[in-house]
Amino acid sequence: MSGHSKWKTIQHKKGAADAKRGKVFSKLSKELMVAARKGSDPSANPTLRAVIQKAKSANMPSDNVTRAIKKGAGELEGVIFEEISYEGFINGVALIVQGLTDNKNRAAAEIRHIFTRHGTDFAVSGSVMRQFVRKGQIIVDAATVEEDKLMEIVLNAGAEDMVKEGDEYNITTDPASFADVSEAVEKAGIKPISAEVSLIPLAPAKIAEKAKAEKVLRFVADLEDSDDVQNVYTNMDIDDAVLKELEKSA
Fold this sequence. Notes:
three-stranded antiparallel beta sheet, Alpha-Beta Plaits, alpha+beta, 24% strand, Arc Repressor Mutant, subunit A
């Protein structure tokens, strides 16, 4: 798991995401609406099933989930969102910005402004994407379940791998198997820290300086604060000692 993912887990555990929960739910609603265009039945729409699992891991109310799906399926009036994607680098760290917007020109201008403000610009399309692979990723607190029990559950459900990293289990799946594995974990009464189909870096960029890590994290935070941005993926791998320093000040 990249250092950026570790940092997001720390923030989640500390409850730092609570203040932005409304924005998180808004972004999840967009994803649900877009996924539901291909069908509102999760059993026949694996993309929708995956987003529903992501919404559950974020404790999104079921009424919000249902309403977003109905909007996407055309059963309720809703805005049409388009997918956008931008790539870039900062301090040797590669990142991918994915979003959903009802105005591509506005979104491009706003996101480019954030890049410029942090002293960088968009990279050539595809130059960063090839450094990542799409996988389902489920993070579970190791204190909540025995390793052997969880390993049996996820592998039987179709997971590719499970490794223990510090006090967490990191479960990876093929995107097509993500919903099945997430549901198996949920049915076993295990609450994951996070669960989503994500972009995993093939070659993480090690960050051993606190100032450098903080600069990248500020950039990511500014991007994530944009209403048009859904996810920001990086290949940043923060050194454990630096991560501890950041955790103390979080």
